[in-house]
Amino acid sequence: MMLDAVLAIALLFVANFLVTWARTRLSGWPRRVVVAFSFAMLFPAFLLAVRALFF
Q1: Distance CA 7, CA 48 (A)
Q2: CA–CA separation, 48 vs 54, rounded Å?
Q3: How big is the CA angle at 36 (ends 4 and 8), to the nearest 5 degrees?
Q4: Residue 12 has what pLDDT?
Q5: For the CA atoms of the chain, what is the radius of gyration?
Q6: Each residue's pLDDT tens digit, 15-26
Q7: pTM of the full predicted structure?
Q8: CA atoms of 11 and 17, how far apart (whole Å)
Q9: Is the dihedral of CA 25, 40, 3, 47 positive or negative?
Q10: What single DSSP character describes residue 41?
Q11: Residue 43 vs residues 9, 24, 46, 48, 49: alpha-carbon distances, Å
């Protein structure tokens, strides 16, 4: 579905933005929390991309 692909791309964009923002602005444990959250966003993006390709 097209919406699944758009959502996957949006999640990847937000995850990339969060990692870039955290690396430039934050330090210590807040940086680790934001990076961990953005890393956790990659799994739903992957699932949505697979769903968009095959279903």
Answers
A1: 7
A2: 10
A3: 10
A4: 97
A5: 13
A6: 999 999 999 999
A7: 0.88
A8: 10
A9: positive
A10: T
A11: 12, 24, 5, 9, 10
Residue 17 Cα to chain centre, angstroms: 8
Q: How far apart are CA 29 and CA 44, in angstroms?
A: 24
Helix (H, G, I), strand (E, B) or coil at 28: coil
Tokens of 21: 């923002």
Distance in angstroms (rounded) separating the CA atoms of residues 3 and 48: 9
Does residue 38 contact residue 22 with C-beta atoms inside 8 Å? yes
The span from the CA of 52 to the CA of 26, in Å, is: 34
| 29, 39, 9, 21 alpha-carbon torsion, rounded to 10° | 20
Cα end-to-end distance, the chain, whole Å: 7
Is residue 16 a contact partner of residue 37, using CB atoms and an 8 Å limit?
no
